[in-house]
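ugh finaly. both done.
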Amino acid sequence: MVKSMQVYEGKAKKVIPLDDGKVIMEFKDDATAFDGKKKAQFKGKGWLNAQISAVLFKVLEEKCVKTHFIGVAGDNRLIVERLKMYPLEVVVRNVVAGSLKKRLPIEEGRELPEPIVELYYKDDSLGDPMINHHHAKVLGISEGEIKEMERIALKVNEILKEYFAERGIILVDFKLEFGKNERGEIILGDEISPDTCRFWDAKTKKSLDKDVFRFDKGDLINAYEELYHRLTGEA
């Protein structure tokens, strides 16, 4: 089952359709956590997430990972290919953190012997529950489609782990979303940003992601700006 892409305003982005099969993703300055129970706005957050996502999509495209990214369409906007999105979040975990430490008897911060891939069903009313392959097939997503998304996710992990390690950053875990384009290809969509990933400084283990907001660890914009600087060298 693939859901038709809907034009909407979500918690962190607006999706604006164009007439030529493309879409504008506009990143907002809003921040939410704990299923929307915690909310705030941070000036410049949308710009940073858009620019960071653009950098990372380009890195992946250069390594032959197909994404919906086409280009930057403004300070906080990306132009992307329109997809029919799967109602799934594919999460890859390299280090024990977040909800994983609540489910496994392993201390936070331990590197996993191999990446763990998890599937979550995208439904706010259900709290985006974790599901397995059997659940996904009941929802109409074939085993072949699931395996392809997991294969791409692990390739993304391999590329980005090395990319961030070269910049003194640990890629702890991250969420990806996928969709089908008009040619029937399963490709990477949505965003790759500090809103959807956990990044730790390799030396200090300082968070450079939305956990700064979730757990009141400091200034969110400073953390995102530091990440942007390490990726681009720009202030």
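ok and the 2nd:
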Amino acid sequence: MKKLRRSARIVDLTQQFLHQPNTLISLSYFAERYHSAKSSISEDIDIIDEIFQEEGIGQLLTLAGAAGGVKFIPSIPKEEAKTEMLRICQALSSVERLLPGGYLYMSDILGNPKLLKQLGRMFASAFSNQEIDTIITVETKGIPLAHATASYLNVPVVIVRRDSRVTEGSVVTINYVSGSTKRIQTMSLARRALKEGSNVLVIDDFMKAGGTIKGMIGLLQEFNAHLKGIGVFVESGETEERLIKDYISLARLTEVNEREKLVNVELGNFF
């Protein structure tokens, strides 16, 4: 790259950080890219970091030493997240979304790129202090939410299947008890999909009693993986027995009355 003016260099630096979140980039790389002194690059980074923090975009973490560099940690201000989630809760509270069994129709929200981006940013902000190697979710509706979160944490997504597939090679399959129906079900994960000892974040779209997530935790044990957190988009508030205790939810389904056609969704425990 040719030598840039400082204003152009700051723009390019900003793009580098936004496109590579949670990635440690050395000052030597920037110095060679812009043909500038490390001291000048450091001053530019301080300016960007100040703006990022003022605007609630995140922060730039500088690590000293030979193996050091700069890492962009995305975040979202709590008030901004709360305002966005209140809009989503209002949309979810429509009686037209009510499905048999106390479930909600959420496919339109989980298919909206703009909303997904915000939801992923919220989860990334909630778990930014954890060392996460992989995000895991169960097919199918949790997949876009997991990918949205992974784009901010810059980690891969692993999908747990209800049924094993030939294209995934050998798999680990376990039986688990569904928390809501109390039925024995199965889930599978390809042996090549998850490295032994990985630090894992579980993301799911809806949690009733938590049986599916508990099943995923049991599956992770087969890989000696370390559970670093659980993120749920919407949790049911009418469940008597919760199988999962430590989790973060963005929204909470507090009232469902199929007879009177009443639905109420409020903010989750993240707020």
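summary for the 2nd one i guess: Residues 38-54 form the longest helix (17 residues).
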